[in-house]
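Researcher: Good morning. I'm working through a list of sequences from a screen, and I'd like to move beyond sequence-only analysis. For each chain I'm collecting a predicted structure so we can compare shapes side by side. This is the next one on the list. No need for commentary yet; just the structure.
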Amino acid sequence: MFVLQHAAVLVLLLVIAAATGTAVAGARVPLALRSALGLAVAGQVFAILAALGVFRPWTICIFAAISLVGVRRIAMRWEMFAAVPLFVLALYPPIAFDETLYHLPFVRAIAGSGAIRFLSDVRFPVFPQIHELLCVPALLVAGDVATHLVAVAEVLVLAAVLIAWPRQRHTGFLAAALVLGNPIVLQMGTVTHVELALTLFIAAGAWCIDRAAAENPTSSIAAAGFLFGTACSVKYLGWYFAAAAFVYLVLFGRDRRRTIPIFLLTFALAVVPMYACLVALTGNPLFPFLPQLLGSSPWNGPLNVPLNGGSKSIVRALRLFWDITFAREHVGQQPPYSPLFAVALLVTQYLEQRIPEYRALERRGTGRIYVCGAEQLKDYVGADLLGDVYGPLSNEKIIASAHDAAELSANLARINVRYLLVSRRRCPSDWQRLPASPAFELVYADEGASLWRVGFFTND
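Model: Good morning. C-alpha cells for this chain:
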C-alpha cells in the first residue's frame, strides 16, 4: 500500500502538471513544455494563496479540481519507464542534509499555517519557496517521503523537455541520457531539494526562447519570461540565468521592441508573488544577502532576538504520530505503541547508520537542544533544535564567544537550552573540549557525537 500510494501521488502530480499547462498554453504546445508550464503555474498560484494565508487543503483541492476539469487522455510514452529507478530511490526516508535542515521544515510550516512565515529558528528563516510550495500537497496526502516525488516529477518533465526540444530526435535522447546519467541529478532528483525545479524552469524557458526564433514569437517569449521568473522564485540563482536570457534577447532576439516588453511583463508576474512575501517579511527582497544595501532585519541583530515560539505547537501537531511511538512522554504515555513500531524501528536503525549524530539525538529528554555540527537534524526536532553556522544563534556567537564552560553554559541558559549535542566529525575540536567540566553532565557519547545536559550558571 505504501508503494501504491506514492505511485498514485507521482501519477497525479504529472497529470495535474500536464492538465494545468494544457489549460494555459493549449493542446498544440508540446506535452513536455505544457507540463513544465503547468508546474510553474501551480507554484505561482500556491505562492499567491500562501501570501494571502489561505494555502489550505480546501484551496489545494479546488485548484486540482479546476486543473482536471478539462483534462483529456494523456498518452503514456515508453520513456516514462525511466521513472521506475527514480521512484524506488525516492521512497527512501528523508536523510539528505539540506532537506532535513530547512526544506522539509519549511514545507511542514507552510502545511501547518497555510502561509509563508519567517522561521527564525531555521538556518535561513525565509527565501524563495516555489518548490517547497509544490511539495505541500504531497506532504498532506502521503507524508514527508512523498515530497521526494515532486523532484522526481521535475526530473521526468526535464527529461521530456530535453528529448522534445531538438529537431533531431536522436539528439534529444542523447541530451536526456547525459543529464539522467549524472549521479548528482539522480541524487537531487529523489530528495526534497530545489535544484531540479530550478533546472527544469530554466531549460523550459530556454526552449521557449529557441521556439520564438522559429515560430509564434509572442506566446513563446511570454512563456519564457514566466518560466525564468518562476526559476527566480525557486532559488536566487535563477536571476543569473534570467539576466542571461534577457541579454540574449537584447542582442539576438527578433522584433525586440515587442518581445522584450512581453518578456519583462511575464517575468515580473512570476517574480512579484514570492518576492512581495520576502519584502513583507524582511524588507529585503534578497534576504539574508546584502543587508547593508537592501535592508537588515532583527535576524541579523544581537543574541536577544525573540525566537519564533508560534511554530512550536504546529511542529508538535505535525509530529504527533512520531510522538505516540517514539516520544510518548509528549502525549502522556498514551496511546499505546503503534502496530508499525517494528517497521519504524528499522527506519530508525537506518537513520542511525546514515546520520552518526542521530543516536545521540535519540537520548535527549524534553527541552531545547543546541547543536554544533549537526544542524541537519532540524527536521527531526523542529523548533526545539537551535544552532547553525549563520544567524543570531550561530555557533560562532554561542560557542566561540565563550572562554570557558561557565560562559558557554550561561550563553545556553540565555536561550533556555537544556541539551548540547556536539558532532565529533564536524564541530571544531577546541569547541568540543568546552563542555567537559562540572558545568555540563555527559548524557551519551559514541564515535558520532556527544550529548550533554546543560547545568545553568548565573552571575551570582
